[in-house]
Amino acid sequence: MNKAIALYVHVPFCRNICFYCDFCKVFYQEEAANRYLDTLERELEGKNYWFKSIYLGGGSPSSLKAYQLERLLRMLSKYKSESSSFCIELNPEDMDDEKLSLLKQYGINRVSIGIQTFDDKLLEKLNRQHNKQMVFKLIEDLRNLEIFDINGDLMYALPNQKRTQLLADLKIMVEDLKLPHISTYALSIEKNTYFAVKKVSALSDDEAAEQYALIGEYLRKANYEHYEVSNFARKGYESKHNLVYWHAEEYIGLGPGASGYEKGVRYQVSSSVSAYCAGKITKSHEEIGLDEQAYERIILSLRLKEGLDIEKYNQDFQRDFLKDYEKVIAKLLKDQLVVIKRKHLIVKEDKLFILNRILCEF
Ligand code: SF4
Asked: Domains of the chain, with CATH numbers?
């Protein structure tokens, strides 16, 4: 094995379908999951890498039965090193003692839990199957196994969600559970979801922006680092895997609906789960030219607290960033939306909620 690269594995099964979900997933079915694992194993054959980060997402990797989860973790664990991040997404209701001990046995060192909210009524509205107690129990079990690197997903802008409900969620995550990493997501109503069909409305953009500001204020006060537009971490607990995406580094994507980026080519695996399980893998490829790579560097870097490293950009793309974007930067500086610090262009923390508007300027 000769190269460190990141790996994303998409596990497209769920025991239950949430009302807002437009990810690539189907209802769990044992036979299909076995065939999925057969295809995945064949895909991994001949991969001459060790992975500095392996991320099992979905769908719900935890929806697999224990013997299937063991097969999956065994086939992947041989591609990691001592220092690799090995992360899995979990739904609390899927977990039992047997599956938990497999995580430890195969070296999982980071877990991301689909919490969304602790308000059991809101969870019901989203058609989530867990409750607050299950999250508490799972986190206690993980810590007993000495898995401390835990992310909690937090959703906001939920239908009729009040400021006090969001504050209560934040308080539990920070004060009761002391989570070292929190990823935040605003609910958006996507086509073909149950919510779209039922014409459920999310909060207005203004209300969502207000809630976003509230989250930032609360977590910064609690000494979390707002290191990416939607992500907060205690020092040292930033997501190594997501940083690969935000730094536009190479990664391999396996499984239906996964995407990857290797040698300047982005690819997308077809999202047909049945075709994948039958061993047919179709991918679309797109070559990313130098102009697009440079543009992506700007867009992705400005999501991060560290911002865009101007000297590195100039060196990598043989350009002069400040000259090429002279007018745009002058306008953004005048409007006090960005700062230039230690040769980095950085979006001001209190302006991150209009990041998309800022990015449009480029
Ligand atoms: S568990 Fe995740 S992937 Fe599965 S339906 Fe819910 S949101 Fe979608």
From this structure: 4-246 (3.80.30.20), 304-362 (no CATH)
